[in-house]
């Protein structure tokens, strides 16, 4: 009896499954077929005689956003109507795959400037590195607006491989292109970016140099320090020198200090303040980093020496255990107090440099000695003091 029931249940299950599949096919097939028909209708609409129908069809295909529509949209990029081509580009921007990027690469070579610009905007929306090839082609466009858009997008993609393409544009005859390229290269960063920006730092236009120097400072790469200090040995406008001082402070490399000290001999008294302040800030920056490293350094643990062997013949009286003396916690100066000391040290150092320039060597030595009392290990103060002592002995 039980076996018969089990067989009947299995038969019922098979019938139920079959009925379900039939029902789903009955309901879904017409829907799928309708969607397929609609898709084909829109693709056919791309070839309609009326511009309005072609535009509407392109828009609908973009809303559908299926990869299989890309080929039809690509063909429509050759449409005689600029409005249709623009709508096709808009549709392609909604399909994020390599096929749509490739199609937009075709649009970048369109005869109409507005269409080419729209294609670059569409590539920005997709934000894929597969767009690099078409964008490199666009940097050679005859229209500067197209070139600028392509350069901007290449910078935002952040791929170092494009720097060789962008490097020559740092020296483009058009100022806007030079400026845009500087920012694009700065967005990418790295050693190659610093090399590319060296041309802009030495640009004949002060405004270009200042922008390049500011970008190098923002990059925060100390490898740019020699490039910036070299500017201090050139004959440039004070605005360029000021930008160098700010950038060197941002980089914070101690190697910049000798060049800044040397530069103080070349400028008027009223202009020295900014560069003296830059020296102080760089010293403070390095000292703070040094103090933080010292605080974070793990303390060495003393090794416990093994107790000396005791002869069993000599009984040792039981010792009364003593409470170990508390180990004093290391004293860490408050940050504000430390910063005040650093500031004071910088003031003594700067005063020493000023006295040295005035050939008041005794006063200069006294100031440097005060600076070394605050930080006995400061390399710059030691070197400057030695230099002063040599002058005193002459």
**What is the helix/strand order?**
HHHHHHHHHHHHHHHHHHH
Query: Largest sheet at a glance?
Result: none
Approximately how much helix is present in the residues?
Answer: 55-70%
State the secondary-structure class: mainly alpha
Output the radius of gyration: 37 Å
**Strand elements, count:** 0
Q: Estimate the strand proportion.
A: under 5%
Structure report:
By secondary structure, the chain is mainly alpha-helical. The protein has helices spanning 2-45, 51-64, 70-76, 82-92, 98-107, 113-126, 132-138, 144-157, 163-166, 175-188, 191-201, 206-219, 225-231, 238-251, 257-264, 272-296, 335-357, 361-374, 379-393. Residues 301-336 have low confidence and may be disordered.
Provide tags for this entry.
394 residues; mainly alpha
How would you briefly describe this protein structure?
This protein has 19 helices and no strands. The protein has 394 residues and is an all-alpha fold.
Q: What is the topology?
A:
Elements: H1 2-45, H2 51-64, H3 70-76, H4 82-92, H5 98-107, H6 113-126, H7 132-138, H8 144-157, H9 163-166, H10 175-188, H11 191-201, H12 206-219, H13 225-231, H14 238-251, H15 257-264, H16 272-296, H17 335-357, H18 361-374, H19 379-393
Helix pairs in contact: 1-2, 2-4, 3-4, 3-5, 4-6, 5-6, 6-8, 7-8, 8-10, 10-11, 10-12, 11-12, 12-14, 13-14, 14-16, 15-16, 16-17, 17-18, 18-19
